[in-house]
Amino acid sequence: MTDHSTPRRTARIAALAALSLAAVGFAVPAAAAAQDQPGQTDPTRVVYVEVNSNDMANVADYTLEGTNRPAFDLAMIFAANINYDTTKQQAYLHLNDRVTETLQNADTQIRPLQQRGTRVLLSVLGNHEGAGFANFTSRESAAAFADQLADAVDTYGLDGIDFDDEWSEYGKNGTAQPNSTSFAYLLDALRDRLGPDKLITLYNIGPSYTLTDWQGTGASADLDYSWNPYYGSWIPPQVPGMTKQQFGAAAIDLTATSSATAARYAQRTVDEGFGAYVTYNLTAGDHSGYISSFTTPLTGHATVYKAPWYDVDVAADATCAGGEVKLKVRIDSADAAALGATVTSSIGSRSFSGILDGETRVAVQQAKGGAVADGSVTVCVDGPDGAMTVDRTYAVPACG
């Protein structure tokens, strides 16, 4: 696939200025926000990777400082194509050489991301052949393409499908023009095949976004997220039936948008209650400083590059015992390596060694001898790749 998306989107930013201003005033009910730290809404952080020139594995190089969480929640393989078979007169899913290579090397390109908690989706893009998501003329033809998408998700262990309705050139090769039910048919069929646990997302561009009768068909019920495709801009989506927590109004190009703009849009995402923040074109190398410019306002954490990472879960909880705070810190390991861990709080310190895959260690500390519980704990996890630090907070009960 030849990548024409960036020049087209950049060129259209100025033309969309009026739309952007109008869209800012679009009212959408806000959903309850998940909390990471006080004052943070923790929007879903999305990254698109141009696999024609970069590896998906680069996404796994970034974690949130002081946590074992990934910097990016969703990673998009950009991009597969919807092509048109002129003999059979039907659309089909096309995987170019680099997309195929990425999928076939899932153990190194996809699984490391998923192990860290990043969900990986296949983005699907038009390819100048007349086939698109908006010109299926029957439920049956839409369902046939949905079958191919679902097969790709199942075959390669992916977490869903992302739609980008650009470059289809509707009408070419004798194909139909867009209609108001096609994309709804496709979404209904795909959701039925993927089930509720996989993700379906949409770039807000092209006839699939602008012409579908969302309220009439209920297509929005099948979408998990919808976001602005114009990098360097702020354009809130307008999809009836979806909430702000499903929208990404900000879109940034990691190689072209200034860090000041990225930070400003991140803070605005938090302040206005949007649920996603979209980035594009992650390349090789250490970009943790730039990425920190938006993860800090979005999550309260800076981003670190290639920090040691182990598959552990850490939880902290405090109760009262004998009039004093009693802190319990639980460490669950799903890592293949034997790990050590040191739990440090204002109450005390406790170390463990030889924690194996599937094992749990629990540190119990009690605030005796004048020690004061301050609501924070640090767990340093040691393994063959070095040390990983995980910070946790807990509510301090009123004891005594």
Give the SSE layout.
Elements: H1 5-12, H2 17-24, E1 44-50, E2 62-64, E3 74-85, E4 90-94, H3 97-104, H4 106-109, H5 111-116, E5 119-126, H6 139-156, E6 160-164, H7 182-194, E7 199-203, H8 207-210, H9 214-217, E8 225-227, E9 233-234, E10 247-248, E11 250-253, H10 259-272, E12 276-280, H11 288-299, E13 303-305, E14 312-321, E15 324-333, E16 339-345, E17 349-355, E18 360-366, E19 376-383, E20 386-393
Parallel strand pairs: 1-3, 1-12, 3-5, 5-6, 6-7, 7-8, 8-10, 11-12
Antiparallel strand pairs: 2-13, 3-4, 9-11, 14-15, 15-18, 16-17, 16-19, 19-20
Can you describe what's shown?
Helix 6 (139-156) packs parallel to helix 7 (182-194) and helix 10 runs parallel beside helix 11. The strands form four sheets. Strands 1, 3, 4, 5, 6, 7, 8, 9, 10, 11 and 12 form an eleven-stranded mixed sheet that branches. A four-stranded antiparallel sheet has the order 17-16-19-20, with no helix packed on it. The chain contains eleven helices and 20 strands. The protein has 400 residues and is of the alpha/beta class. The chain has two domains: 5-305, Alpha-Beta Barrel (TIM Barrel); 312-393, Immunoglobulins (Immunoglobulin-like, Sandwich). The protein has helices at residues 5-12, 17-24, 97-104, 106-109, 111-116, 139-156, 182-194, 207-210, 214-217, 259-272, 288-299; strands spanning 44-50, 62-64, 74-85, 90-94, 119-126, 160-164, 199-203, 225-227, 233-234, 247-248, 250-253, 276-280, 303-305, 312-321, 324-333, 339-345, 349-355, 360-366, 376-383, 386-393.
